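[Automated response] Your request has been received and processed.

Submitted sequence:
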Amino acid sequence: MRGDRRQIQTAVLGGADSEEPLMLPLEAIELDAFRRRHEHDTFWCGMLLGGCGGQLTTKLYTDRVCHFAHHPGPDGLPHVCGRHARGVARADHLYVKSAATAWFRGRGDQADFGFDYARPDGVAIGSVVDIRFKARGLRVHLDQTVAPVWDEGGLEPVPGVSACSNSTSSGYGCSPRWHAPSPRSAA
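Generated structure:
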């Protein structure tokens, strides 16, 4: 049986359980600078990316896209990984958490927020991120796997770019949510 040969574009930094995502540059000239910047770092097929937890290395190519690759197994054979999502967008949930954490801390909110990589109905990790703060929260939808539910459980849905479609064939579309004032009755 042949393993999955799609190229890995995202990894986590420092260990398999890390929440610090990074994306590998696609061009060889950019990869040289990336390698210098991260010469003392290790890259991993992160558990929060749906990965196997194995260590990764960078592969430089001039005739195709540069990418991460697993270190070979102890027997010298290629490592087999069951990670399905390997593209750039598959670390979006980690980037959302990183950006929201920086925003909250920039406001001085040190302990008044929390995150959950929600998995309603067992969906793959990374489809939804719940951000809770004070008595409110946001549910960030990063793909079309989980339909937004408005006004439920104190979490306001925030559709990400990949969660919206131009049609409603997925069962839901994305449109701005706004409330028009009700017409006043004549006196």
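Summary generated for your ticket: The longest strand covers residues 128-133. The longest helix spans residues 92-106.
If you did not submit this request, please reply to this message.
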